[in-house]
Amino acid sequence: MKKFALVTAGLIALAALSACSTSSPDVIQRRDTQSLSQVLDASVLSVRNVTVEGSQSGGGAVAGGVVGGIAGATVGGRVEGQIIGVLGAVAGAMIGNAIERNGTQEQAVEILLQLRNGERRAVVQAKGADSFKPGDAVILITTSGKTRVTRAPELAASANANSSVPQAAPAASH
Questions:
Q1: Do 151 and 125 share a structural domain?
Q2: Kindly report the CA angle at 26 between 21 and 31, in degrees rounded to 5?
Q3: 66 and 46 within one domain
Q4: Span 30-34, mean pLDDT?
Q5: pTM of the full predicted structure?
Q6: Residue 122: which domain range?
């Protein structure tokens, strides 16, 4: 029963580690709030699905090694327990590392863009609420060195290129 509790605790720790990070364009980091961002207008040239490799911080290997070592050390006598404990720690570390890597892997899109000045850019971001297709009007928002792509607001997408200030919507009459 003790061994089961230890293994369960280790797996919960590994799951928690794998849920710590995201590159979703729909999630804004707390440190990026109330920051002035650069915004550029662009058009989508192409979109392709990609996989963002999972991270390997070492936390998964450490947690797996501890769980494997403790579980292995409880097997057999003193000498056998030590040997199996070492083997369990190595196996646990390898398994924990693989769980962390696979748990933090993300499905993403690579978006090839054409800026208004003719320059081209590519941005890779996790799949979010928006889906893009060639010809879509989008904006690139850069904050703290990270850029995300989102749909251009209707006002920006339809604004006259000669106008530098968008016109306000007419007021509703009562």
A1: yes
A2: 60
A3: no
A4: 74
A5: 0.54
A6: 35-53+106-158
